[in-house]
Amino acid sequence: MEEGNGESKESQTGFNKYACICVIFASIISLIYGYDVGVMGGAMIYMQEDLKISDTQVGILAGIINLCALPGSLSAGRFADYIGRRYTFVLASVIFFLGSILMGYGPSYAILMDWKVHCRHTSIPSLTLAIGMLKMPESPRWLVMQGRLGEANEVLLQVQDKSRSGQGVWKELLWRPSPPVRWMLIAAIGLHFFQHTAGIEAVLLFSPRILKKAGINNKSKLLLATVGIGITKTVFILVATYLLDKVGRRVLLLTSLGGMIVALTGLGFCLTMVEHSNETLYWVTSLSISATYIYMGFYSIGVGPVSWVYSSEIFPLRLRAQGFSICVAVSRFMNAAVSMSFILIYKAITIGGIFFMFAGISVVAGWFFYFFLPETKGRSLEEMETIFGKKSSSQNLEMPMKPAN
C-alpha cells in the first residue's frame, strides 16, 4: 500500500529521478559549449601574443568554430532520425573530444602554452557525455518513428512521457510548408537570429578586450572579470529555469530584452566616454563592468535559454529534428558572423558605437518577439500547430493562450 502511495505521489508531482538523470546527461552538451566559449574568451588574451596574429585573424579564430559547425547542424536532424538521438549525441561527443585534444596539442609548437591547457580541458565533459549517453535510453519518439513500439513503451514507463508517431520531412518543412509550419520557421529563425545579433558574442568572446578598453590593463584582473561574467551567466540561467514555467516564455524574453537594451546603451555610453578621455575614469570603468554583468544577467534569464526551449518545443514530431537543426544552423551562422565581424565593425564605428548598434538591434528584436512569438507555456508539443495555425494577424499572437487541461 505504501509503495502504491509512493508511486502515486511521484506520478502526481511529475518528478522522476530516472528522467531527471537522462536530462542532466543530455544537458552536458550545453556545458561543453558554454565552457568552450568561456575558455576562448580568456585564452584569446594570450593567443594573440603567442601566435602573433592580427585583430582580423583573432576575429576569424573566434568565429570559425561556429562556421565549421554549420554542416553538422544541418545534418544533425537526419542523423537523429536515422541512428537515433542517443547515438547522435555519442557521435558528436567523440568528434568534440578529438577536436579538443587536437586544439590542445597544436603540432607547430614545442612549448606547452597555458591557453592550450584550457582547450584540452574541454575534452573532459565531452568524453563524460559520450560515456554517459551509452547508458541512457533512446528517445521514445524516435523509437516510435522506427516502429519499435515495445522499446518505446519501456522507455515511456521509465520517464513517464507521452508520444505520437511521425516522420520528419525536409520537403514539408522548407519547400511546401503549411501556414502553421511557415510561422513556426519564421518565429524560430528570427529568435535565433536576434539571439546573436543582440551582441552576446561580443560580451562572451571579447569581454577582456572590452574591459581593457574600459581601463582594466592587468591580465589577471581581466581574467577574473571574465570568470565573473561566466558565473553571472550560470546563476541567471538557473533563475530562468525556475521562472520558465511560472511566468511563461514571452514575459522572460521581453523582460530580458528590456534589461539588455539598458545595459548595452550604458556600456556604449561608458566606452564612448573612455575613448574621448585622456585620463583613466575609474567610475566609468566600474560602470562598464556593471553594465557588462547586467547585460549577461538579463540575457541569461531570457533570450539565452528561452531561445533553445522555444525552438525545441514548437515543431511537431514529424518535423522536430530537422526544424531544430535549422535553428542550430542559424544560431551557429550568426554566432560566426558576429564573432568574425565584431573587431572590424568596432574599428569602423568605435567600440561605443557598436554597442549602441546592438542596443538598436535589441529594440527591433523586442518588436519581433512581441508580434511573432505566441506564448507556448502549458502547451504540449503536439498542440503547437494549432497555436501557430491561428496566426491570421499579429493580434492573434498577442492574446494569451489558455492553459492546457
From TrEMBL:
Annotated GO CC locations: membrane
Family (UniProt): Belongs to the major facilitator superfamily. Sugar transporter (TC 2.A.1.1) family.
Localization in the cell: Membrane
Transmembrane intervals: 18-46, 58-80, 87-106, 222-244, 250-274, 281-301, 321-346, 353-373
Alphabetical list of InterPro entries matching this protein: MFS (IPR011701), MFS_dom (IPR020846), MFS_sugar_transport-like (IPR005828), MFS_trans_sf (IPR036259), Myo-inositol_Transporter (IPR050814), Sugar/inositol_transpt (IPR003663), Sugar_transporter_CS (IPR005829)
Primary subcellular site in the record, as a coarse category: membrane
Name the UniProt record assigns to this protein: Polyol transporter like
Protein species of origin: Quillaja saponaria
SUPFAM superfamilies found in the cross-reference section: MFS general substrate transporter
Source taxon at top rank: Eukaryota
GO molecular function: transmembrane transporter activity
Assigned keywords, A-Z: Membrane, Transmembrane, Transmembrane helix, Transport
Sequence ranges assigned to domain Major facilitator superfamily (MFS) profile in this UniProt record: 1-377
Topology versus the membrane: Multi-pass membrane protein
